[in-house]
């Protein structure tokens, strides 16, 4: 179970900035990071279904192709870089974000 209520989140910025049919990587990835980074710890906790739930709602609200963010959003070889939050230590954290359990595609959020 996920402690974040992704059902009630506002997806407007994400869906406004990331639009088909071309889904421009720069805009889509920036919007995805803006939406997902605040929840990186919860999304990357593989003991919860937060990643699955979040991507389900992103797909519902944006009608995005499966694996869009995993295939387009790569900043480093380990994934996306999220700004650290006050409760994160100064050392970088490499955290795997499961994008789609159905396709076993992985994206990564890295807190620095």
Automatic annotation (TrEMBL):
Pfam family of the protein (one): LLG1
Domain GPI-anchored protein LLG1-like: 4-80
Domain of life (superkingdom): Eukaryota
InterPro entries with a match to the protein in the record: LLG1-like (IPR058888), LORELEI-like (IPR039307)
Protein name: GPI-anchored protein LLG1-like domain-containing protein
Annotated organism of origin: Brassica cretica (Mustard)
